[in-house]
From TrEMBL:
Gene3D superfamilies on file: Luciferase-like domain (3.20.20.30)
Recorded family membership: To bacterial alkanal monooxygenase alpha and beta chains.
Lineage: Bacteria, Pseudomonadati, Pseudomonadota, Gammaproteobacteria, Moraxellales
Coiled-coil ranges from the UniProt annotation: none
PANTHER family linked: LUCIFERASE-LIKE MONOOXYGENASE (PTHR30137:SF6)
Organism: Alkanindiges hydrocarboniclasticus
Pfam families, sorted: Bac_luciferase
Protein name in UniProt: Luciferase-like monooxygenase
A Gene Ontology term for the protein's cellular component: cytosol
An example molecular function term from Gene Ontology annotations: oxidoreductase activity, acting on paired donors, with incorporation or reduction of molecular oxygen
Residue intervals of the Luciferase-like domain: 11-304
SUPFAM superfamilies the UniProt entry points to: Bacterial luciferase-like
Amino acid sequence: MSVLSSCNYSILDLAPVRDDSDVATALKNSLALAQHAEQLGYTRFWVAEHHNMDGIASSATAVLIGYLAANTQSIRVGSGGVMLPNHSPLVVAEQFGTLATLYPNRIDLGLGRAPGADQHTARALRRNHLESAEEFPEDVSMIQTLLGDIQSDQRIKAVPGQGTHVPIWLLGSSLFSAQLAAARGLPYAFASHFAPRFMMDAIQLYRENFKPSAVLDKPYVMLGVPLIAADTDEQADYLATSLYQRILNLMQGKSIKSQPPTRQMRELNPHEQASLNSFLGMAAIGGPEKIKQRLTDIVQQTQADELIFTGDLYEFKDRLRSFEIVAELFKP
């Protein structure tokens, strides 16, 4: 049995918008990808909350999850994540309690501590966003209470939500959420798909300090992996130029709508190259054999329980093929 066959595999989607297309197409593609993932045996399909970004259509995360869950049958659907400083814990509990009531045993609630936006946008979302980030542990506790069994002295109830026990994940790119997830006995997802710098430190901190809970008896680690898989290494390298352009545009404050791949990438200056290398430190780019070796190395190094893949490819058919290639690698 290969190392990969003992690891779960999932997809994190941002509903990317192409430079020559629109949001409606991006959302329809997100559903088509979720249906494709379900057929391929992926464990879960998550969407991420981002705001004020023209190339990302997944901002209304709970609404999009409802659309995806309504049009799939068995795959788990959830948030990777909901950025809690932007929201009232009660509203989050009601939204995900509603989803869990409509689609039992299929909804995940991943919670992040960052606003997922610049400060101006964060203020537009929730004016006391800075204080809210500091209140993250208390907000997580409130959501746990609102989704758990009713308590005799509980004055505020989530309806729907109370008693649904929606699985809560803590997400992070630093050590804070690792420590909190360990203390609460919750599953932990590290954002290594864009910020892998503290990955090993966070994993170690989480595992060493983990306290078993009613929902989890041992640590469970999910890691984000940027994925560009194709039938050959050369084709994957070509397709990856769309991802490179998007990251560089993000760093420069430009439009991050998906750009077509190019065989003539401009030469990057040392700072740009270093930033790109840092962002993509966990990336898997190549043909099937190269991808298999890369993912095997990642799982052996980290002992991850699950990998969750992002796939930033310009042509939708290339995205579908990329996830097909990887699903084959995880089969026993």
